[in-house]
Amino acid sequence: MAAVVARPWLWPTAVRQVGLLAPPGWWRRRPYLPVPDAAYLAFRLETMYGGHAPKPVGRDLIGYLAWCRSYRRLLR
To answer: Which of 11, 28, 63, 69 is deepest in the core (most CB within 10 A)?
Structure first.
């Protein structure tokens, strides 16, 4: 999270991704946070790291958000 705070140009992308990945009606269920589905996260971590899933680090999040940002620009 601190890695994103230090890069203000990624803030809009981070907010957009939270909105896109949050399950519908997240505010009605605990933990009352826009957290993606656990099965989706497990799938994404497996496709990113292979069979073992280490804890993601800041540079991984920055790389993902930068990719999302560049892909969105490509679609325009």
So the answer is: 69
Domain boundary assignment for the chain: 2-19+35-75
Q: Which two tokens stand for residue 4?
A: 């994103």
Contact 4, 10 (CB under 8 A): yes
The answer to whether the beta carbons of residues 22 and 34 sit under 8 Å apart is yes
Question: Within 31-57, where are the H helices?
Answer: 38-49
Q: Which two tokens stand for residue 73?
A: 């620009």
Using CA atoms, how far apart are residues 58 and 9, in angstroms rounded to an integer? 15
CA distance 1 to 24: 23
pLDDT tens-digit map of 33-56: 998 988 988 888 888 888 776 777
Tokens of 19: 């909105």
